[in-house]
Amino acid sequence: MSELIKEPESFEQALEDLEKIVQQLEKGELPLEEALNAFQQGIALSQYCQKTLNDSEETVAKMMTKQGEVPLNGE
Fold first, then answer.
1. Which domain holds residue 44?
2. What's this model's pTM, rounded to 2 decimal places?
3. CATH number of the domain residue 63 falls in
4. Does 28 reside within a domain?
5. Within a 10 A sphere around the Cβ of 14, how many other Cβ atoms?
6. Quick one: pLDDT at residue 2?
7. InterPro entries from the xrefs (predicted)?
8. I need a surface site. Which of 7, 30, 36, 41 has the fewest CB within 10 A?
């Protein structure tokens, strides 16, 4: 029933794929099994994006802590 869910190539690709899935599900034209698979893939992509954002935030916070206040806009 469910397909193997692979990790996306990048955050941007995951976000793009997630947007496509949301559009498909909003149309309501997928058969139930396909809709469930799409929903499952969407959840996995959402979790991947959230983890990537959290990891990035932690990295920036560590950089700012180690180097003091670092202007993020190049000033």
1. 11-67
2. 0.74
3. 1.10.287
4. yes
5. 19
6. 44
7. Exonuc_VII_S (IPR003761), Exonuc_VII_ssu_sf (IPR037004)
8. 7
Q: Which two tokens stand for residue 37?
A: 């698979």
* Amino acid present at 70: V
Residue 41 within a domain: yes
Q: Does residue 72 sit within a domain?
A: no
pLDDT in tens, 16-50: 999 999 999 999 999 999 999 999 999 999 999 99
Q: Is 20 contained in some domain?
A: yes
For residues 53-70, one letter each, b for 16 or more C-beta atoms within 10 angstroms of the residue's C-beta and e for the rest, the string is: eeeeeeeeeeeeeeeeee
DSSP 40-74: HHHHHHHHHHHHHHHHHHHHHHHHHHHHSS--TT-
CA 11/CA 28 separation, integer angstroms: 26
